[in-house]
């Protein structure tokens, strides 16, 4: 997990820099692009020099990630979904696909590789560590595809090939180690859960639309 900031410095940094959805949602209902959130995530978690850098996300340095705030409600069984990560497929010769790609270009000026949607209503009142835990949980879904030998795959231009990872203990244990066990729900995570979180304790029991899991 590399060097991490002492708790008090990390806490202050997140408190001082975390973007508020109200900035992006001022004039938009339902969905709004969240460029400030995207910039903050890149600077904070993905940039190797970022204060909460996590090397698990290094392949995302080359990813075009479209971030969205939403005020629309999504439910997964009984849980309200707070975040979702999805892979954007290549455009097909269908109006539905063309319309979707047109929408992405309207939102982001280009078609992203991955779209991550965050519930703005929840984010506006979530504590800092719960917010960070949700962001990293969604980032953990945005994995790099691997070949039969387990080696990371790249396209012809040398760019990582992205894939959505299911909720896998190894991929998500970081989130518990960094933010605590509030809703780990997996036995293998208990070891990480028993240790003090590196950053701070998340309080949420939010749900993810990608894996349906409640998360720390
Ligand atoms: Zn998930």
Mind explaining what this structure looks like?
This protein is an alpha+beta fold. The chain has one domain. Helices cover 36% and strands 17% of the residues. It has 8 helices and 9 strands. Strands 1, 2, 3, 4, 5, 8 and 9 form a 7-stranded mixed beta sheet that branches. A two-stranded antiparallel ribbon has the order 6-7. Strand 8 and strand 9 form a beta hairpin. The chain is globular and about 50 Å long. It starts with 6 loop residues before the first helix and ends with a strand. The relative contact order is 0.17. Bound molecules: zinc ion (ZN).
Task: Briefly summarize what is shown.
The chain is α+β, with helices and mostly antiparallel strands and 216 residues long. Helix content is 36%, strand content 17%.
State the major sheet: 7 strands, mixed
The small molecules bound here are: zinc ion
Number of helices: 8
Averaged pLDDT, please? 84
Number of domains: 1
- Ends distance: 18 Å
| Percent of residues in helices | 25-40%
Q: Over the alpha carbons, how many angstroms does the gyration radius reach?
A: 17 Å
Total number of β-strand segments?
A: 9
Structural class given helices, strands, pairing?
A: alpha+beta
Q: Tell me the overall shape.
A: globular
Low-confidence segments: none
Order of helices and strands, N to C?
A: HHEHEEEHEHHEEHHEE
Instruction: Classify the beta-strand content into a percent band.
Output: 15-25%
